[in-house]
Amino acid sequence: MPVLSVLPALLYFIVVPVLLVLSHPNISPCRLTQTTALCNGCKLSTVPQNLPQQTEELFLNHNSILALQSGCLLRYPALRLFSCANNSLTTVEGDAFSGSALIENLNLANNQLHNGHKGLAQSLRSLTRLRTLDLSSNGLTEDMASYVLQNLTSLEFLYLSGNFLLRLDESTFKDLHQLKELNLDRNLLFEIDGAFDHLKKLQRLNLAFNSLPCLVQFEMTQLVVLNASHNRIEWFITNPDLPETFQLETLDLSDNQLLFFPFLPSHSRIKTLLLSNNHIGFYGHLADNSSSNWTDSVEYYNMGKNASNITVEIWDEGLTGDISTVELLDLSGNQLRSFPEGFLQKMPRLYWLRLRRNCLESLSLTVQDMPETLYELDVSDNRLTELHAQPSSANKLNNLTHLNLSLNDIQVLPPRVFTTLPSLSSVDLSYNSVGVCPSRDVSDSDAQVCAVWSNLSSLKQLYIAGCSVRSLSPSVFEGTPLTHLELSNNPDLAVDQNCLSSLVGSLQHLGLSNTGLQNFDFSPYRHLKFLNISNNSIWELPKSLISLNLKLLDLRNNMLSTIQSEDATVLAQRVRAVYVNGNAFNCCQLEWYRMFEESKALHAVDLSEVTCIDLHQRRRKAMLFNSLECGGQSTEESIIWYILLFLSVGVSLVGISIIYFLTFRQKLLPHAIKKRCWRPTSY
Ligand SMILES: *[C@@H]1O[C@H](CO)[C@@H](O)[C@H](O)[C@H]1NC(C)=O
Ligand SMILES: *[C@@H]1O[C@H](CO)[C@@H](O)[C@H](O)[C@H]1NC(C)=O
Ligand SMILES: *[C@@H]1O[C@H](CO)[C@@H](O)[C@H](O)[C@H]1NC(C)=O
Ligand SMILES: *[C@@H]1O[C@H](CO)[C@@H](O)[C@H](O)[C@H]1NC(C)=O
Ligand SMILES: *[C@@H]1O[C@H](CO)[C@@H](O)[C@H](O)[C@H]1NC(C)=O
Ligand SMILES: *[C@@H]1O[C@H](CO)[C@@H](O)[C@H](O)[C@H]1NC(C)=O
Ligand SMILES: *[C@@H]1O[C@H](CO)[C@@H](O)[C@H](O)[C@H]1NC(C)=O
Ligand SMILES: *[C@@H]1O[C@H](CO)[C@@H](O)[C@H](O)[C@H]1NC(C)=O
Ligand SMILES: *[C@@H]1O[C@H](CO)[C@@H](O)[C@H](O)[C@H]1NC(C)=O
Ligand SMILES: *[C@@H]1O[C@H](CO)[C@@H](O)[C@H](O)[C@H]1NC(C)=O
Ligand SMILES: *[C@@H]1O[C@H](CO)[C@@H](O)[C@H](O)[C@H]1NC(C)=O
Ligand SMILES: *[C@@H]1O[C@H](CO)[C@@H](O)[C@H](O)[C@H]1NC(C)=O
Fold it and tell me: Which positions carry the signal peptide feature in this UniProt record (predicted)?
């Protein structure tokens, strides 16, 4: 066939597909599902015009659209949701939304609309059904914001976080009568002057991460959630003259500078009260002294000429307001030395009480001093020296399940205090000087500070790290089905084979770091999943570990010089995570290292940091160590050397014997000749 006759066919096959592609330039990168078009991250620079006309939800987040021009949405009259966040919008033209009167939800967050706020304001006027508007992170000041928000009377949810709002007053949100939720977090607010007074439907208000110095005359009775965390608030004072019940359920004032417990409404429904990281204390004991000079009113000035006087009896601890519905109280990281008489009893529904990092000196685990409902109590990192308990016959804290007393200095404690808590499931008593009572015959008047851990049928997790425990007798955990036991940092502890024998059937998590452990038979502990034997003096990997199905094994800071290849093989298959650094590994016996490196099942967390000791007693990075430096030390090579040595000895032996044989032969030869010669021959 002549070449010329093939050409048209070739042309057809090449050109037609190209033309087909060119004639459909609108092939859309968007994902369509029913009436939703998802065009997020499609590198678009304009609103696509080729989507179905009945599209109701259009997502254009993470593109590079600079402007929304007039008529750009005309094609989509059914639009209810339009999201154009994370673009580089600087302009929204005045009639950009003119044909989209049905839009209810508009998200323009993370753009640059500060300069174009006038056009934006005008464009929003046509959205008479707008309920949700997100203008977060657009560089807006309060004047721009109040301009944009004018007449948006239908708005219910407004997000303005991460802008440059400094101060709010009555005019800022004046038309937003329907507003239910307002997020103003991460602005620069230092003053709020009547800005929320007319927002009668507002239920959720977020003011977190601003610079507010106080919240006084609080009177938003309809508010359900108020978040004012991460400000500089020194005072929170409710207007005391309001008899109504506040709807407030969640109040977050954490990370502020409160000196006093907040002055809460006298009737409220508050359930969650978050006050961590302030300077709160109770000072009633100071106020009793009549000689005291201290003022008892707080003056509050705003930026205008108006100064108001708010008088509260700051020393009167009865005036904390209504806390009877509180379920969660977080007072971690404050200055509490004690509670006023009966304070905790004012919260008969309290389940979670968090008092970490305060200055409490004593604690009473009795229903006289604690709400009976208490479920979780964290008093870690305080100055507790005394712990009091219920007399055994009386009512108990029946619901107390999690108790954290770590990092204190407990010196007085009834040994059987934990047996009075029938639901107790986890106790952290680490870093106190409380030993473990040798179970039998403990009298409550025992001088020794120790706790009884036997026959606690609900207890699952026990943490007694750093408690100077010296010995454990075999029956101490009898009748207590622990799954977790943390004994680390008790360096004088003699862990012998028997002392944990009652836990053989239950233990899953065992911490024995820094306990002077040398060898231990782990094989009976068949349920063990997590084992920490770091910081001990282990010379050789205990063989009993190989039979377990561990998930995590911490072997750091021991004296291991190698891990036998056969053990390494099993570990690499069974264990999920292992820590090995800080041992005295021999650089010339790193077969295990390669196995761990290659294993897919095992994650050797610190493998890249592992060091080893080379022939010259220097510490080297195992990862960078070149095994050739070991020279003849490697086992395969030494076998060759043995063979060579054997061979050379053998060869020389053979040589010697040949020489010997030959020299002997020399003497024999003439003899034979002589013999022959002697023989009479018949020549
Ligand atoms: C915009 O980007 C930020 C940061 O990448 C991200 O946190 C946010 O969720 C994005 N917003 C939307 C609506 O995609
Ligand atoms: C807001 O509405 C009022 C009354 O309907 C009107 O007079 C005013 O011009 C509107 N403001 C803007 C900025 O559109
Ligand atoms: C308060 O707001 C901050 C920042 O938005 C957030 O991290 C925190 O979880 C909020 N608190 C509550 C109780 O929702
Ligand atoms: C108040 O009086 C008590 C003894 O009654 C005393 O210990 C305390 O230091 C006094 N406080 C002040 C602030 O004077
Ligand atoms: C009361 O205040 C005055 C002035 O601040 C001070 O000089 C005086 O010592 C104070 N008195 C007492 C009892 O603290
Ligand atoms: C000061 O506040 C009062 C009521 O709180 C108000 O009537 C008065 O107009 C305010 N004065 C100024 C100058 O703002
Ligand atoms: C606040 O009250 C105190 C005492 O009642 C008074 O001396 C002071 O002048 C008042 N301040 C203002 C701004 O009203
Ligand atoms: C115990 O505390 C839990 C909180 O997790 C709560 O749901 C439960 O109602 C409490 N029980 C009693 C009897 O207070
Ligand atoms: C107890 O509190 C300490 C310090 O506050 C913390 O590190 C530890 O994890 C807590 N224990 C438990 C069991 O949660
Ligand atoms: C645990 O309780 C049983 C029976 O209630 C008792 O026989 C045993 O001695 C107790 N064990 C310890 C260590 O107190
Ligand atoms: C093992 O115990 C030590 C001491 O308590 C601790 O520092 C280390 O993080 C633990 N290892 C793992 C893997 O949790
Ligand atoms: C474990 O030992 C290492 C090195 O000896 C030391 O730096 C570390 O603090 C120890 N860790 C504990 C929890 O004792």
Answer: 1-23
Q: Residue 328: phi, psi to the nearest 5?
A: -125, 120
Q: How many angstroms is it from 259 CA to the middle of ligand 5?
A: 21
User: Quick one: CATH architecture of 29-110?
Assistant: Alpha-Beta Horseshoe (3.80)
**What values do phi and psi take at 656, rounded to 5?**
-60, -45
pLDDT 10s digits, 627-660: 888 875 445 555 666 677 777 777 777 777 776 6
Ligand 8 binding pocket mutation candidate from 326, 327, 351, 395 (most atoms within 8 A of CB): 351
Distance 9 CA to ligand 12 centre (A): 78
Closest CA to 60 of 40, 44, 90: 40
Give the CB-side neighbour count of residue 615, counting CA atoms within 13 A. 11
Q: What is the CA radius of gyration of the chain?
A: 40
Using a 6 Å CB cutoff, which residues line ligand 4? 286, 289, 292
Q: How far apart are CA 23 and CA 19, in angstroms?
A: 6
Residue type, 462: L
Q: How far is the CA of 212 from the centre of ligand 7 (A)?
A: 23
What's the token pair of residue 427? 């106790």
pLDDT tens, residue by residue, 538-581:
999 999 998 899 999 999 999 999 999 999 999 999 999 999 99
The count of other CB atoms within 10 Å of the CB of residue 671 is 10
Which residue out of 416, 454, 459, 472 has the highest number of ligand 10 atoms within 8 Å of its CB and is therefore the one to mutate? Answer: 454
Q: 517-633 has which fold? A: 3.80.10
Residue of minimum CA distance from atom 13 in ligand 3: 252
Closest ligand relative to 276 C-alpha: 3
- Position in ligand 3 atom list of the atom nearest CA 161: 5
Q: How far is the CA of 228 from the centre of ligand 8 (A)?
A: 28
Considering every ligand atom, which ligand is closest to the CA of 606? 11
- CA 217 to chain CA centroid, nearest Å: 37
- What is the chain's mean pLDDT, rounded? 86
Q: Are 168 and 192 in contact (CB under 8 A)?
A: yes
Ligand 7 atom with the smallest distance to the CA of 308 is: 13
Helix, strand or coil, per DSSP, at residue 402? strand
Residues forming a β-bridge with 132: 105, 157
What's the pLDDT tens digit per position in 488-514? 999 988 788 888 989 999 999 999 999
Q: Outline which parts of the chain fall under CATH 3.80.10.10.
A: 29-110, 517-633
Q: Which pLDDT does position 652 carry in this prediction?
A: 76
The single-letter code of the amino acid at 123 is: S
pLDDT number for residue 216: 85
pLDDT score for 18: 42
39-77 pLDDT, tens digit each: 999 999 999 999 999 999 999 999 999 999 998 999 999
List phi, psi (to 5°) of 268: -155, 175
Which residues have C-beta within 8 Å of that of residue 262, sequence separation ≥ 6?
Answer: 236, 237, 238, 251, 253, 275, 320, 321
Of ligand 2's listed atoms, the one at least distance from the Cα of 150 is 13
